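Q: Got a minute? One more chain.
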Amino acid sequence: MNILFFTNDPGVQESIRQAMAGKKHSLAMATNYQEAVNILGHVFISLLVVDFNMSQIKCKALLAHTQDQYPDIPVITLSSFPLDQIDLPHNTFASYVGTPFVGNELKLIIESEVQNLVQGGTITNVSPPSFAQLLEMEGKSCILRIFEKNSLKGGLLVFRSGRLVDARYSGFRGMDAACRILAWDETDIFIQNKDYPAKDRINSDLQSIIVKSVHMKDESGYKAAPDRPMLARQGAFPEKLGKHLEMQLGNRTCILDVFHDPAAGKRLREARALGAIFDLGRLKLGCADNGTENGLFVAGPVPTTIKLGTQSPQEKITLLITRYLDTI
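A: Always. Here it is, folded:
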């Protein structure tokens, strides 16, 4: 979990570092209002700790901004003033810690708040689309904090009675954030069974969002290809695949052609979307047959089509392609 601390007191900062030493949480420090707002807008923060010994005007402004834009983020208030002397709106903060700290008080309260964020359970190594569809079927209301396994990027999905109503990721919100999160392949999901006090920012059914996320992922990858050093190898993929099949089959008389086929990209995107909806796993290739000729479209580094002869051993060719894709 990412925790943001809003304080300009070096002593408080050092106390926080000591209190959180050895914990797995990532700590971010902000010493002024604009810095805190920037961090909230670009880092997936799960908990905010505000030192009210700073300017109360700036602290109240930050709390108002957090309530308006990130109502899912609980706030811990630090202050040398008694709780009943802090002039704040009702339910603005989750917990109160008096300063100076007594023993492990701050650490224990932070851990308690983090546990509240995951009181619905934790699921590891799961794809967001498949889990989201389960919540839809069960009509669940909850907040999901999702972290991608490889990059540790984090995002938030909010469900109300089984409908996806809000999402945030980095600087994105609503539909744009949901599509990016649902495009992740393997994630850890932390569940909070809590109603979310925000309006519906998405207004779309889940399957449409999943399909859009697959298309967005494919288009993003395709557009980024010219800047990648892999481009030369990507362009050579159809030729290399053809030579590999020729070597394995002993001849290529059963294969009429192997070529880069941009038109196959659309078919692959549609098939990937169905795979995401039904949780079928990674798409490697598909078969197309229009009654007069048949072929395979391959989800390689570039969309590739293989035109087959009428006597082609399609099952053997399919197996060879699948094994070849696992090696690249």
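A: The longest helix spans residues 206-224.
Q: Perfect, thanks.
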